[in-house]
Amino acid sequence: MTFELSSEHESFRAVVRDFAEREVAPYVAGWDRDHHLPLEVVRAMGDLGLFGLVVPEQYGGSGGGGGGDFTSLCVAIEELGRVDQSIGITLEAGVGLGINPILTYGTEEQKQAWLPELVAGRALAAFGLTEPEAGSDAGATRTRAELDGGQWTINGSKAFITNSGTDITSVVTVTARTGPQEISAIMVPSGTPGFIVEPAYDKLGWHISDTHGLTFEDCRVPEGNLLGTRGKGFAQFLAVLDDGRIAISALAVGLAQACLEHSVRYAKQRHTFGVPIGARQAVAFSLSDLAVSVEAARLLTYKAAALKDAGRSTAEIKQAAAIAKLYSSEAAVTATRVATQVFGGNGFMEEFPVARFYRDAKILEIGEGTSEVQRMLIARGLGLPVA
To answer: Which of 118, 54, 114, 129 minimizes the C-alpha distance to 90?
Structure first.
């Protein structure tokens, strides 16, 4: 039994880290300040193959005939997230929430139509599940789609949708009620009349990431834009979220790792009363505890990814994903608090990356299932009768 990544994965990590250090790190503070998503970086990520890691070669990916290596995707997300969380979530959402539903549930025609451009980084896709009154309770979806004359007419709204309003966003897959007791998934191309992208949110963190509310007013798309089986949209998206929670865990690991690295470096350089602050037991012990939590979060994340790659049971993957997401996201939030404290007054200054990490961290405990939802899922996995 081994808990180490393969030499191929570590070589790939080095490639992505080099990309992140060269193409993202020098510019990220300015992008964050200007709330600007650099689409040229998205395209460069596509050129590097990052959007195609889990996609078969026939659609432009590198995942072989049956699909790809989820562990490699997690490595890429971790390394991007180590430099900037917004760039990391752009990849995570672009693959996990944009590409994955089409790859998993789409017809061959839908895959051929949408995946090549998404894999190349020339386009982005989004996932419209959350609504103003339906977040953790996604089954409370109010958006409706009625079939009439071979077309779906969609009315409703979505909230907090990542990658939904960029200049290269090509399609958003939305959940909608298609009957009294059924929720289906329908693909809505950008620019469709009645599909309104609301102004970008003014967020606490993830300033570079593209996030909008969406409104649908008599928005009509062909009947063939149904994704997967009618009435199974809710179940499909719950399955998609299991994978997404592992990927979010990798994003959290990247953030925690960055906090550890920045804090150790600063603790060696910053002197008080004639000695480095890292010589102070309070600082040294805090960073020791942080190193333990980073290592634990990484092991939980890559265990879940390995189960996914091994094709283990849905129940086993769901439990591992919930455990990894819960622990890693909470560890990341704690890591930013520790790092900011180590930096002292400088930690409160935007010129230091830990200030950005502090702002970015909190959403990790909320997006793709809150910590409370993860605890509920874990309890259910234990066989407890949780409502």
So the answer is: 118
Range of the domain at 287: 233-381
Rounded-to-integer distance, Cα 173 and Cα 335, Å: 34
Burial 325-341 (b: 16+ CB within 10 A, else e): bbbbbbbbbbbbbbbbe
Do 172 and 302 lie in a common domain? Answer: no
**Catalytically annotated residue among 10, 21, 368, 372:** 368
Name the residue with higher pLDDT: 386 or 282: 282
- Say whether 4 is catalytic: no
- The dihedral through the CA atoms of 90, 206, 299, 321 has a sign that is negative
In one-letter notation, the amino acid at residue 5 is L
- CA–CA separation, 66 vs 76, rounded Å? 20
| pLDDT single digits (tens) 36-56 | 999 999 999 999 999 999 999
Tokens of 352: 């230091």
What global pTM score does this model have?
Answer: 0.95
Q: 166-218, pLDDT tens digit by residue?
A: 999 999 999 999 998 899 999 999 999 999 999 999 999 999 999 999 999 99
| Predicted confidence (pLDDT) per residue in 243-285, tens digit | 999 999 999 999 999 999 999 999 999 999 999 999 999 999 9
Does a structural domain hold residue 386? no
Question: Considering the domain boundaries, does residue 387 fall inside one?
Answer: no
Report the SS3 class of residue 160: strand
Structure tokens at 383: 């066989």
Q: End-to-end distance of the chain based on CA atoms, in angstroms? A: 37
Structure tokens at 71: 């562990």
Residue 65: the pLDDT is 47
Looking only at the bridges linking them, the beta strands covering 195-200 and 182-189 are unpaired
User: Domain of 188: which CATH number?
Assistant: 2.40.110.10
Tokens representing residue 291 in the block = 């190193």
